[in-house]
Structure formats: structure tokens, C-alpha cells
Amino acid sequence: MACAFELEGSFNPAHSRIKIFRFEEQGRFVPYTCTQCAEAWCLHACPVDAIKMNAETGAKVVDEATCVGCKVCTIACPFGTVNYNQSSGKVIKCDLCGGDPACAKACPTEAITYVDANWTGLDKMREWAAKTDTGHSVTEAPSEPAGH
Ligand code: SF4
Ligand code: SF4
Fold this sequence. Notes:
Blueprint lengths: L1 H7 L10 E5 L4 E5 L8 H5 L5 E3 L6 E3 L9 H5 L6 E3 L4 E3 L9 H5 L15 H11 L16
Antiparallel strand pairs: 1-2, 3-4, 5-6
């Protein structure tokens, strides 16, 4: 809601740049937003150069005036974190609120923090995975031979 209010002026989670993916079988609800990835597939895919990198924050930012709403960037992003806004006919994505993210400020448990990307290196990700892992990995061998 903080994201939606900051960027759209409404307390409507549907307008948020953070989307919650539901894994019903595991009972998990996982928030996703743009990782501001170094590869920036969205930026490179845009045919009209409507997505630029903010040199200060590293955020990949959509220039609404230039965007023609073709949605190529929504296909290019492997994380699905660029979304089409029906009402404007343009795309929306996280822009890090210019370096002062509303989501991080609003989060009461500091589950969202705004830190340097290098801080969340591989070791941190492994630590986090160990805490949240169910003990099963996608590479784990099946307990029964295939076909049984
Ligand atoms: S929207 Fe996707 S491709 Fe673009 S910077 Fe964010 S994570 Fe990377
Ligand atoms: S929807 Fe807009 S930002 Fe995305 S690729 Fe098309 S013109 Fe570029």
C-alpha cells in the first residue's frame, strides 16, 4: 500500500510495484519486485529507449512520456517485475523511489531494508535460503525411480 500511495496516490495494492506470488500448496506468499539487475533485460529490449538507468541509485526507470506501451519489456524481464498499467497504457516498475523507498520506510518489522546490492551477496542468499528452506531442493533426486 505504501508503494501504491507513493507512486499512484492510492492505497490499492493492485497499483503497487510489489507483487505477491502465491504458492498455495506450500502456503507461501512471496513478494517480488524489480531487482534492478545488472543485466537490465527490460532496458535493452525497449525499442524506444524509454527505460534509463538512474546513475545515482542504479534503478532502471521508465520514462512514461516515451513509453509506447508495447510490453516488450514485460516479456524481457525474467522475473516478471515490469507490469502493464491498463489505465495509463504504459508500463510500471519499481524505481526505488529515487533512493528513498516508501516500502522500506513503511515496513514495521524492517523485513524490507534498503541496502547496497553487494551486501546481499551469495553467502547472504545461502544464509537466507537455509533459514527458509523446506529441506527439498529442485535438484533433489526423486525417492522412487522415474515411472513408479
Ligand atoms: S525489471 Fe527485470 S530486467 Fe528490468 S532491471 Fe528489473 S529485474 Fe532486471
Ligand atoms: S512498454 Fe514501454 S518501456 Fe516497455 S518496451 Fe515498450 S516502450 Fe519500452
